[in-house]
Structures are given as C-alpha cells and as structure tokens.
Amino acid sequence: CERVIHCLAQQASEKIDRTRAHAGEIFIRLLYMDSPHLPHIPHHKELLEIFPRNECLEMNWSAPAECFPRITKLLGLPSYRRPVLLGLTVSVGGLTESLVRHSYTSLLSFLKGVSSREEDLTTFAETLLEIYRTNEKNDRIIVPLFKMLDMLFSNGCFELFTQDESHPFPQAVLNLTKKEIFKLGDARKLITSVNVFCGLLQFPGVTRMKSFQQLCIFLCHKYPQVRKTTADQLYAATLTYDDIIPAESLDDVSIILSETSWDASIEELRIIRNRLCDMLGIPHPVLKSSTAKTSVKIKKDELESYKDLVSRGF
Asked: Which of 120, 261, 287, 288 has its CA 20 to 30 A from that of 65?
C-alpha cells in the first residue's frame, strides 16, 4: 500500500496532464476510502489536512494552477519527499510554460519556508542528490534536473550553503554534473549544463574554482553554440554574483566575454581563453589528446631504438 501511494504521489506531480489527473484522482479516492478502510497510508492524518475532502474530490488535477500548490506540500512529509520531488523535477524542467510556471512557483514557495532552516534545507538537498545519483545518464530526469538546478541557484535557494566553503552539497552537484557530461557529444545537454556550472560559481572555494575551470573548457569546445552560450552565461554570472571575480580583473573579463567572436578558430580562442584563466587565477586547461600523442610517440621512439639495437647485433 505504501509503495502504491508513493507512486501515485509521484505521478500526480509529473508533467503529463492526463497522467497527473488520473493519478491524482486515484490518490484522493484511496485517501478517503471507507469500506474497506485502507491501512498503512504514510502520514494519513497530514494528508487529510493537505487534501480536504470538500475541496479535493472535484479538484482538476490536470490544471497545474490547482494541483501543484497542494502536491508540493508533500515535500514536508519525509515519506513522500523523494517521489514528489522526482515528479516535480520533470515538471519544473519541462517545456510547457504553464506547467513550468506553476510547478516551479509552488516549489519555490516551499523552499522559501525552509531556506533559513539548515537542517530542513540539507534534507531537501540530500534528497535532490539522491535523485541525481540514481538517475545518472537518464536524460528524461537529468536534463530537467539541470534546468531545475539552474532555477534554484538563480533564486538563491541554497544561499545558506554559501557560508561554508567546504559544504558537501555544491561539491556533490559539481562532481555529478562533470561526470554526467564526460565525453558527451549531445550539444543540447551540454548547453543545459552550462547554467548549472554558472550557478555553482556562487559557492566559494574549490567549487567555484572547478566550476570556472569547466566553463573555461567549454569556451574552447568544438561546438560553437556551446562556446557562445558559455560566454553569454558566464558574462551574466559576473553581473549576478559580485565577488566571484577579482575587482581589478572584472572589466577585462567582461570585455573578453562580451566582445570576443566565439565563432573563431579554436586555436585563436585558446589564446584568449588562457588569458582569461590567468585573470581568474586558475590553471590553463590541458589538452589530453596532446598528452596521449606524446606518450604514443615516446613509446614508438623506444621501439625504434630497440629495433635499431637488434639490427646492430646487440
């Protein structure tokens, strides 16, 4: 019974109107089933308060404006936090304007209530990371998750964590996102990840430095659109977050990001990018392919030397 209720709660918070409506109606029916009474419903009393019979039996679950303000309240109930957040991830990162607006507004409203309470915010963040880890390489979840993270970072939902340079949440998001895009050829997904790395710049210390490094790698990516988007979003981040760039370098960094033609050849852009790295105080990205070629060449030279020795009778 518990698993069924959790699945219904997840589907009642997802993006497809018809699925959400069907799941929501069944959820309410099971909640108020009298004969026989359905046992083992987690947080039954709290659910009855969130979904009063007289208001919810006729509720239009397919209308985002009606369902999300209520279903989002389930994030405060431990048993429902993960399935509901999983469903909301797909909705908040969806494509339909009405769906995104109402689901995100409801999620933001919930987070504003817990953003000043470190324990509650940490619990939410840990649930978010759990969803991230269990859905690696699953684009149905990860791409909307990137969009949702961008929205949450942009609205300062995790500002409480910026006070601790070694906070595990931003570092975990950084590592998971880098792992997700490793050797990725999907330009759309790469572009979506750019905003996540830009949002991570608000967190000081190692997280900021490694985010800058990844963004600088993107500035010389083989896809021009990835380069352009990175420059645009990084420029916007310099305007949003006051302290992420040394004051003496801010103007020069802004000029490079806004005035460089990112359609130029990668060889030309690499020189500009490396100058930008110097201003940001981060090491230049190293081409792994060059290292690999050098290694192969060394091995080949050693082999040639061995053959030469054999031919000479040694």
From this structure: 120
